[in-house]
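Anyone up for a design puzzle?
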């Protein structure tokens, strides 16, 4: 019962504490208004009664007091730099005290009883205004990081005030990487994402949930719930789980209203954790999965090690990757995402998209109609391991700018191949584990753009592959290990002399 009562009290404290940013504007506005009216009256520009100013000061004092209470309740949630929080608290209290003193000095209720109140009025207004500015500065630092209100100070004032030269704007934003393969995976790829999207709330001055992400050792340590990532288990790590929660969930990170991580950025963080969360390795040292390749490509403005898949920026750069298409319809993208598919720009600033069904294994032919509004924007389509059939081919064939198509481990067959073979930009086609036969790949002999074809564990025979290679000798065809090669390998192992036999000889 005691635990339940504590929990309820904590919930109410957090609820009222969230009103601090709303209430804090009341004393600021009223104090400034009272000061301006007094200045206007001294200059003969306005006519205002003392009772009016007294009324304004009263609500300024009430607002300052309520703001202090709400601020205290908000601070109970923790996550703030202790000394800065303490300073901000007392500065807010002084604002409230000054507002009450100014009201007492101006109120008819006290002027007749205490003749010295007039002496307190001007100092109270000045002190109130002074602490309002100081408290506002520190409040901004608590919320947005140290020096928030002054970090954009322009020159020459920075020099006059002895401030450090202004850092280049957007320094924390993710910048293109010239050579993604040789980039340090944490320093150059992962950390820029963390700095741009996470450090604002998890730094030396503000560590929500007792978590700091501005230092490697503290990042490893985690927060009040322990480590935020488990090496080798991206999807089970709190760092990823919170990013994937619904935006309305109070535990979703970054919080609603903040700039959210893109699907590509989440894919990179999850991939990094899956690969053991290394801090001292290069991208090339890790295995680039299909899910992360587009995100890595986007970091390099299309430069990527995509294995046998044609990549932007290579010597065989596809024309389609330089096409200028209109931005995709936001509602259409949202509908696709609700079906469980990932939608990601293939490069920074590009309207061309990749659609990936890695999290939508139950995708059906009926849902494929969701792709039709994006027929110009989709250039990379990954439908592997889904429930689509040949009935989906009609929709795929409408994606006129498609360059890469993954259909591996689906039940599609020759009918699909016949429909997609005329796509003008299709360069990469993955038919691993499908029902495609020799008749299907024969239809591909008329394609002009196809460069990479994957047929392992399909119904295609060596005869079919040989016939296709005769008509398209430049086509890179991957068929894996055939049954004949396996038999020859086993036979070679059986006839090879054993180690013991070699020793006897």
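Challenge accepted. My sequence:
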């Amino acid at each position: 019962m005691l635990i339940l009562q504590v929990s309820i009290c904590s919930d109410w404290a957090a609820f009222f504490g969230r009103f601090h940013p709303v209430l804090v504007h009341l004393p600021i506005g009223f104090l400034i208004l009272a000061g301006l009216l007094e200045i206007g009256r001294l200059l003969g520009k306005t006519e205002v009664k003392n009772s009016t100013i007294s009324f304004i000061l009263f609500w300024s004092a009430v607002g300052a007091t309520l703001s202090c209470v709400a601020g205290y309740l908000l601070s109970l949630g923790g996550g703030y730099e202790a000394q800065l929080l303490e300073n901000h608290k007392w500065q807010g209290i002084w604002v409230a005290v000054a507002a009450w003193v100014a009201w007492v000095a101006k109120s008819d209720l006290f002027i007749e009883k205490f003749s010295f109140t007039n002496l307190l009025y001007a100092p109270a207004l000045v002190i109130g205004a002074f602490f309002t500015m100081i408290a506002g500065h520190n409040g901004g630092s608590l919320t947005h990081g140290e020096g928030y209100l002054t970090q954009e100070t322009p020159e020459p004032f920075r020099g006059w005030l002895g401030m450090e030269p202004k850092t280049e704007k957007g320094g924390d934003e993710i910048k293109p990487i010239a050579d993604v393969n040789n980039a340090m995976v944490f320093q150059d790829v992962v950390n820029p994402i963390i700095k741009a999207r996470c450090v604002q709330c998890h730094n030396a001055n503000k560590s929500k949930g007792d978590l700091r992400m501005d230092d490697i050792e503290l990042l490893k340590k985690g927060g009040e719930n322990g480590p935020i990532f488990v090496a080798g288990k991206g999807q089970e790590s709190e760092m990823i789980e919170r990013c994937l929660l619904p935006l309305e969930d109070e535990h979703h990170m970054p919080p609603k209203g903040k700039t959210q991580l893109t699907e590509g950025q989440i894919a990179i963080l999850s991939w990094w954790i899956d690969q053991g969360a290394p801090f001292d390795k290069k991208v090339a040292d890790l295995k680039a999965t299909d899910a992360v390749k587009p995100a890595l490509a986007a970091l390099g403005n299309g430069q990527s090690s995509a294995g046998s898949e044609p990549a932007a920026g290579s010597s065989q750069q596809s024309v389609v990757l330089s096409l200028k298409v209109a931005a995709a319809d936001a509602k259409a993208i949202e509908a696709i995402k609700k079906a469980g598919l990932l939608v990601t720009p293939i490069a920074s600033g590009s309207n061309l998209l990749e659609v990936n069904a890695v999290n939508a294994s139950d995708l059906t032919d009926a849902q494929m109609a969701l792709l039709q509004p994006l027929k110009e924007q989709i250039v990379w389509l990954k439908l592997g391991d889904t429930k689509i059939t040949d009935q989906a081919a009609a929709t795929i064939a409408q994606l006129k700018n498609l360059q890469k198509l993954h259909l591996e481990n689906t039940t599609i067959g020759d009918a699909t191949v016949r429909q997609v073979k005329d796509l003008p930009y299709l360069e990469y086609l993955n038919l691993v584990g499908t029902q495609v036969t020799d008749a299907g790949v024969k239809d591909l002999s008329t394609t002009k753009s196809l460069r990479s074809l994957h047929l392992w564990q399909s119904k295609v025979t060596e005869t079919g592959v040989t016939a296709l290679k005769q008509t398209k000798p430049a086509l890179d065809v991957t068929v894996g290990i055939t049954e004949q090669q396996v038999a020859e390998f086993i036979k070679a192992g059986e006839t090879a002399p054993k180690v013991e036999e070699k020793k006897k000889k």
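A detail worth pointing out: The longest helix spans residues 117-144.
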